[in-house]
Amino acid sequence: MTSEWLCLGRISEATQASPRGGDLPPIDGLIDADGRVPYEAGLEVQYELHRQVVAGERGPSLIMLEHPSVYTAGRQAKEEDRPYDGTPVVAIDRGGQLTWHGPGQLVVYLSGALRPKPDVRQFVSDLETAIIDALAEFGIQAVTVEGRPGVWLPGDERGPDRKIAALGLAIRQGATLHGIAVNCTNDPRPFAQIVPCGLKDASVTSMALEGIAGVEPVDLAPVLGRKLDEVVSTWFVAAPNKEKAA
């Protein structure tokens, strides 16, 4: 089993590398003039797909996109970690703390029904491995760090551990919401306005900062999508009512 790929806006070019696509619910203002998906519109897409998944009408999907610049706060976010200049933050129901999304960063939301009684910790570990394997195809040797979610470049002469990809998931009624963000060519300065993911003793990096220049989110999307499909085949179930609905 593989997922539907819903590649939005600037990431829609990734469908040229895959014959798969999927239908989207009608959402006003889904794509802005720069080809990015406003955060609130992306939430609407997720919630509608989640409704369809829970109803058994839709199988797993990967929603791949870029957002305009936005800060979001998960359930564990602390007030003191918020932007120092008072920039507004969108509070959401995912796990994790405070982070930033914006141009040059690939966001992949996972929408689908998980198999019964999943080992959530192992599921997250498999997602991290998929990201690591995708980055390796571009020459980046990323790792996981014990006690720290996400994907990292280990500390070296350049400084402490550097986070290159974040994960923040929610599971509601047995189905997933939210997902993954991988830093490609994004400006690192927005992260300097917050304590990203609550980590005061680490920093944030990107593919570009690690010397892999010119790899845009649209370039990473099909590679990461294929790696995530391996996770989908292990952890997600098909839509039981999809054929009946058709």
Topology, pairings included?
Layout: E1 4-7, H1 39-54, E2 61-65, E3 70-73, E4 89-91, E5 98-101, E6 105-111, E7 113-114, H2 120-136, E8 143-145, E9 148-153, E10 162-172, E11 175-183, E12 203-204, H3 217-235, E13 236-237, H4 242-245
Parallel strand pairs: 1-2, 3-4, 10-12
Antiparallel strand pairs: 2-6, 3-5, 6-11, 7-13, 8-9, 9-10, 10-11
Helix pairs in contact: 2-3
Total helical elements: 4
**Average pLDDT, all residues:** 86
Q: What is the count of β-strands?
A: 13
Taken from the alpha-carbon principal axes, the silhouette is globular
Task: Report how far the terminal alpha carbons are from each other.
Answer: 18 Å
Query: Which runs of at least 5 residues are low in confidence (pLDDT < 50)?
Result: none
Largest β-sheet summary: 8 strands, mixed
Approximately how much beta-strand content do the residues carry?
25-35%
SSE order, one letter for each helix or strand: EHEEEEEEHEEEEEHEH
Q: How large, in whole angstroms, is the Cα Rg? A: 17 Å
Q: Structural class from helices and strands?
A: alpha+beta
Q: What share of the residues lie within helices?
A: 10-25%
